[in-house]
Amino acid sequence: MTATTSPAAAPETPSPLTDVTRDEASLRRFLHGLPGVDQVGVEQRAAGLATRSIKKEAKRWAIDTAVSMVDLTTLEGADTRGKVRGLAAKAMRPDPERQDCPRVAAVCVYPDLVETAVEALAGGGVRVASVATGFPAGRTSREVKLADTRMAVEAGADEVDMVIDRGAFLEGRYLEVFDEIRAVKAACGSAHLKVILETGELATYDNVRRASWLALLAGGDFIKTSTGKVSPAATLPVTHVMLQAVHDWHERTGELRGVKPAGGIRTTKDAIKYLVAVHEVAGEQWLTPELFRFGASSLLNDLLLQRRTQVDGHYSGPDYVTVD
After folding, report:
1. Nearest in space to 271 (alpha carbons), one of 54, 42, 5, 25
2. Separation of CA 36 from chain center
3. What is the pLDDT of residue 56?
């Protein structure tokens, strides 16, 4: 039922859109020429889709799909190699008593812990993701941002999650943001690039749409809502706007790019709402870890508890899963 096509890895801007990035004026004209977002409409649609019920026979599939889309994340100053190893073990076998439970998509850590994650996940089929570019604020020089990225990739990261310069974006310095994303993409080599917009700081849905298209134009393989360090983080209406952007990008270029909501998604009920949005806004082919992820830590525990409920026919308490 789902596609397995990977997001386009080529950094070159698709030829139909090359002209729009040739200078600041052209890029501004393109971004501000995008259709405005109907705030009431997108919020009503998000609320309406969130009420969709999932039949019992489909709920198990939805839970397993959500588990397989989780980027199991630890991004704290107190992170240790031991914590990362524990997270890696859980990523490969989320429920040790249920061998049919799928693995998560990735483990996401800071660059200095990538090597530990790579060693712990070796041969396990789980990717290693690393934040970079001065996460979470991104308030440092481009040279440092690129060094941060190269450090993660050289340590073995399969994916890099970068933060955009929100200050530059909000001041309308779009070409500067575009160039920086392109430079980070080049530094990633074969690693996939997720571009964090930090939508809670962008203020309007129109800005979210513009930032989404800017990241796609610059070669981002995924667009990601948030760092999880700013409130609000992921919301359904914002994710709708981003899903529409990747859908429209595909219609225009033929390329498939992904979306990753991150921060504040904690329950199975929440995750299913997002899966419904993916299906209805972007399309069924986005219902794969190659094109949709959850940036989460506590979400996995609830998914595992609800999965046991579906399998066993009764609720299992939190003592039956490991606590992150």
Report:
1. 54
2. 24
3. 78
0.70 surpassed by pTM: yes
For 237-281, write each residue's pLDDT tens digit: 999 999 999 999 999 999 999 999 999 999 999 999 999 999 999
Distance CA 286, CA 41 (A): 23
What CA–CA distance (Å, rounded) separates 73 from 84? 9
Burial of 191-220, coded b for 16+ CB within 10 Å and e otherwise, reads bbbbbbbbbbbbeebbbbbbbbbbbbbbbb
179 is catalytic: no
What is the model's pLDDT at position 312?
Answer: 74
Selected catalytic residue, list 71, 148, 158, 161: 161
Which is more confidently placed, 12 or 95? 95
Cβ neighbours of residue 265 under 8 Å, at least 6 residues apart?
A: 234, 271, 274, 294, 295, 296, 299
* Catalytic-labelled residue, pool 158, 260, 273, 302: 260
Q: In the chain, which ranges are continuous DSSP H helix?
A: 24-32, 39-49, 56-68, 81-92, 114-121, 142-154, 166-170, 174-188, 205-217, 236-253, 268-277, 299-312
Of 90, 145, 185, 224, the catalytic one is: 224
Question: What is the percentage of the chain residues whose pLDDT exceeds 70?
Answer: 91
Interatomic CA distance for residues 172 and 19, integer angstroms: 19
Average pLDDT over residues 196-213: 98
Q: Is 19 in the active site? A: no
Going by C-alpha positions, the residue among 65, 123, 111 that lies closest to residue 84 is: 111
**Quick check: is 161 catalytic?**
yes
- State the Cα–Cα distance between residues 247 and 125, nearest whole angstrom: 28
